[in-house]
UniProtKB/TrEMBL annotation:
Superkingdom of this protein's organism: Bacteria
GO terms under cellular component: plasma membrane
Pfam families tied to this protein: PycTM
TM regions (residue ranges): 20-39, 51-74, 119-139
Gene Ontology terms: biological process: defense response to virus
Molecular-function annotations in GO: nucleotide binding
Compartments where found: Cell membrane
UniProt domain Pycsar effector protein: residue ranges: 6-137
Keyword terms of this UniProt record: Antiviral defense, Cell membrane, Membrane, Nucleotide-binding, Transmembrane, Transmembrane helix
Protein name per Swiss-Prot or TrEMBL: Pycsar effector protein domain-containing protein
Amino acid sequence: MSYDELKAIYDDTSGWLKFIEAKLAVFLTFETGLIYFLLKLNEGHEKNFLFLILGLIGVLVSIILIIGALLPTISKSSNPLYFMSWTDKGYDYTDSIKYEHYKKQIREVAQVSKRKMCFLRYSLIIYVFSIILVVIGTYC
């Protein structure tokens, strides 16, 4: 694989990471807003509080998962493509970015993207079940 091909793959992988993080922010906003709407909709109905409490706990777990996925994981890396390397006082800025650096960074960005998608998947599954519990607790 050539240097330009690796750079293109790196750019695509970084683009996917940005897309996943945007989805996480949208789902966090959606989940928070929808649970507020459901709680306001519940007023005046008889409620099964066990289902409501389980549903709300599930929603909180779901929101915590998304917030956990949005928090950056910062680790020390010798890769000059990794942004934290640029903050080191001893880093030589004249060092050129090498072929191996792109390979390593592509792998690292792909692993971060996979972890964030896993958090998002579990958060959405828990959230859907929680909303079902809230609806059952409200209307049944």
